[in-house]
Design brief:
about 15% strand, alpha/beta, single chain, binds pyridoxal-5'-phosphate
């Protein structure tokens, strides 16, 4: 049998280890000898099986030594083993808080602070003045209090955890009144009703899905009522015949019955986008000033920080949250606190429009986006005529389930390639070492440079040129 001869040609592991290709792969990828040796013998095994299955025959080996095939197999394996699953991408969709792409990107200040804290030891739970144990709760609380006007604050893992902690700590085995119109589901994974069931707070739904009146709340109040809850409708707008209860009405009811009001704000912005005529999102400080007892919101939505759930409000409730055993389970790590502290510091300085990418990108004027788009198109046109570009006015979205109906005026580049259809083009852009994520709309792809930083534009240009070059073969 001819493959028997081929099998006999297969070199032994220790022989291949002496080959300079082995040393070169070891060096290039910085892998321990023992591990690379193990992968080498697995690679030999793969080639052996391919010979037995006649996938490799003598014709494949002409002019090629068998060790070359084995090392090619080894290098493939090394690349596969070392490939990161969490990969940075360029978001050319124009959706600022793209949930699937990691929501907010952090400010340079936040990244630097996280890096410093990660590298060494830190005062995570250490009081420098006293030289004794401190509390991680103190790290960002003062900043949050200053920015929101709240009496106290506590930070947990994400806003879903915040909702759970509030309900569990303040309303387990008691009743919580919520309007039917606010029983939302976000991204299929967050349902207020399910979190409530989990927390063992009893949900008392009032009103209908489009109308809830103050008397609906009042009738539902019993001895068992622990909390009046409002959920900010961040990911949908009920348009048309609907009525939502005014905060003031609910506040006077809460006062009358001595019940706390808790509002899950979802996005919770500290920057007032209304000033720039973007959306109708209330700021956290407005809600606190109105007298809401407890508010929770996400750290990585409009705030533009790391994933976190921030709870602010009256000290007597926050204290109960802090001392609940769940607070230990839901607590944030030092990286989150470092990122959050630096992000909040930009707001303290009044520099969030310049320094916090989320705020900056939402406020970015369409002229700047046009400039990036034109630069991109010009740079590609001088190198290839495979692409057809048109730049048009379009709109970007905030994303992350916030301000769903708000359209940010922008410019989009519509792209066609002479040989690759839009699906194929989108796929090839995703398969690059530094993937580019675009919108695909029928026969063309759409690029919105709102979410592509100036220094990322060069990477996008190179990506389109690379896809075109590869497409020629
Ligand atoms: C986004 C959102 C949540 C969940 O927040 P995470 O930080 O993603 O856990 C909860 N409630 C509302 C209203 C939201 O918009």
């Amino acid at each position: 049998m001819f493959f028997m001869n081929l099998l006999r040609l297969l070199p032994a592991v220790d022989e291949l280890q002496k080959n300079e290709q082995f040393t070169s792969i070891k060096k290039t990828y910085d892998i321990a000898d023992s591990i690379l040796t193990k992968w080498l013998s697995e690679s030999i095994q793969v080639i052996r099986e391919q010979i037995l299955k006649k996938e490799i025959g003598e014709t494949n080996l002409q002019g090629d030594s068998i060790s070359k095939i084995i090392f090619a197999q080894l290098e493939d394996k090394v690349k596969k083993e070392l490939k990161k699953n969490l990969r940075p991408v360029i978001n050319a969709t124009g959706i600022v808080l793209h949930t699937n792409l990691g929501r907010a990107r952090l400010s340079d200040e936040a990244i630097q602070h996280i890096t410093k804290v990660a590298k060494g030891y830190s005062t995570l739970e250490y009081n420098l003045q006293a030289g004794t144990r401190g509390s991680r709760h103190d790290i960002v609380e003062e900043y949050i209090k200053k920015l929101t006007g709240a009496e106290a604050a506590v930070v947990v893992n994400n806003n879903a955890a915040a909702v759970y902690l509030v309900l569990r700590a303040l309303a387990a085995n008691q009743e919580v009144i919520v309007s039917r119109g606010e029983l939302i589901e976000i991204g299929g994974s967050f349902r207020v009703s399910e979190i409530m069931a989990e927390s063992e707070a009893q949900l008392v739904e009032v009103g209908t899905s489009n109308k809830t009146h103050i008397f609906d709340y009042e009738r539902a109040i019993t001895e068992e009522t622990a909390l009046l809850m409002k959920v900010h409708k961040s990911n949908f707008d009920i348009v048309g015949f609907s009525a939502e209860i005014d905060t003031e009405d609910l506040l006077s009811l809460a006062k009358k019955y001595e019940l706390p009001i808790y509002e899950d704000l979802g996005s919770g912005t500290l920057y007032d986008f209304k000033k720039n005529r973007i959306g109708k999102e209330p700021t956290v400080q407005e809600k606190i000033a109105a007298g809401i007892d407890l508010i929770s919101f996400s750290g990585d939505k409009l705030l533009g920080g790391p994933q976190a759930g921030i709870i602010v409000g009256k000290k007597r409730y926050i204290d109960r949250l802090k001392s609940h055993h769940l607070a230990r389970i839901l607590r944030v790590d030092k990286f989150t606190l470092a990122g959050l502290e630096a992000t909040l510091s930009s707001y303290i300085k009044g520099k969030e429009r310049r320094d916090v990418p989320t705020v900056r990108d939402i406020l970015l004027g369409k002229e700047e986006i046009l400039k990036r788009a034109e630069h991109f198109v010009e740079r590609i046109r001088v190198q290839t005529d495979s692409y057809n570009f048109t730049i048009e006015e379009g709109s970007s979205k905030v994303g992350g389930g916030t301000m769903p109906t708000e359209k940010l005026t922008s410019y989009v580049v519509k792209v066609r390639h002479c040989r690759l259809n839009s699906t194929e083009l989108g796929k090839r852009l995703r398969e690059l070492p530094y993937p580019i994520i675009v919108r695909i709309q029928e026969e063309q792809i759409l690029l919105d440079f709102r979410t592509v930083d100036e220094d990322e534009v060069a990477i996008v240009i190179e990506a389109f040129l690379e896809v075109d070059r590869a497409g020629r073969n």
